[in-house]
Amino acid sequence: MATGMVDDTRKISKEEANPFESMMERFDRAAKLLDLNPDLYAVMRVPNRELKVYIPVRMDSGRIQIFEGYRVQHNFARGPAKGGIRYAPDVTIEEIRALAAWMTWKCAVVNVPFGGGKGGVVCDPHQMSMGELERMTRRYAAELIDFIGPEKDVPAPDMNTNEQTMAWIMDTYSMHARHTVNAVVTGKPVDLGGSRGRREATGRGILFVVNEAIKRFGMTPPQTRVVVQGSGNVGGIGAQLMHEAGYKVIAISDVNGGIYNPAGIDIPAALRHLNATRSFEDFPDVERVSNSALLEIECDVLVPAATENQITSENAERIKCKILAEGANGPTTAAADEILQRKGVFVIPDILANAGGVTVSYFEWVQDRMGYFWKEEVVIERLQDVMCASFNELVKYADRHGVDTRTAAYMLAIDRVAYDTRMRGIYA
Fold first, then answer.
1. Which of 10, 47, 80, 281 falls 20 to 30 Å from 118 in CA-CA distance?
2. What is the CATH number of the domain that holds 349?
3. In this structure, how many other beta carbons lie within 10 angstroms of the beta carbon of residue 404?
4. Which tens digit of pLDDT belongs to each residue from 135-177?
């Protein structure tokens, strides 16, 4: 472990660790600053619909096992619900509820016509065979079939789900519809109606907003030291794209810990090593660090791209970055916000920083509905337009209202959703 850095222990309250409470604290602050109409506040602070399903699956042993699944549809004011499906043993309704709300604000910040949704199944996918995963996924999709669809709710991959998962959901939905409906999900294989550039979209979106942020500090990529927590589709791809753009990536991690070299890491070589050995262990010319220690390395840009609640009231004082670009959903607790603001950290909040994925998911949905597909360079160009315009609009909004960037992001998103809700009226 690097000298002077702490271990992975986190001692925070249950309330601080609750992602829904963190989201609601930020929502309430923004709503108060907007002087949001009490009726609109009452409507927007709660989900539109929460579904809980029990999923019987015949396991390879021949026995039936019951899995618990959720789908939360937070808001439909701006369009169909949109959001991923995650498979994990620690999935909870509170987590799914928070992530669905975050999707509403994320879609509004980048101004795509979706509301927020999120789903999850309580399972350990690493202990399940492909056959068991397919049977569970198809039965989960069948349970949701009256509530999802291109005009209703469009799922996507998330933690421990992927293109194959989306293909199973699309096929299950299409079999019930009796015709192919590829717009029911995004994040599909390209040959089944997926979009080029979708896999790299979240990491590429981070690159675009960091490019804009470093201009505020008069920095260029070769001068900029980057630390990335996570090495999956967000962290790994983001680190690789930043390395290719000339940034000096000095640390990166996976679930088991990270590697650090102040002179910079050969990210393509490190990721090849990770793919080959499933670990950064034995990668040469680096120092091993824990995931918590990695967060406290002095750097210019810190990209937490792993999971929620990584920067908290317990460690925020020890964060030593100029720019915090939140690749994961909810990596910073609400209690840590004030500490980071006092330290002068420039935050690119998650609902903007990682919105590249949902932006290209929107592009995929549009392409599916048109039946006409774009070249990858078109997808990248349009993603850059959206991310850069959204970043600059957010910064101007923050300056105009005299608030930090996270509060500004929530204010901007709530303002847009509130406008659409007010114009549509409440059907009652």
1. 10
2. 3.40.50.720
3. 17
4. 999 999 999 999 999 999 999 999 899 999 999 999 999 999 9
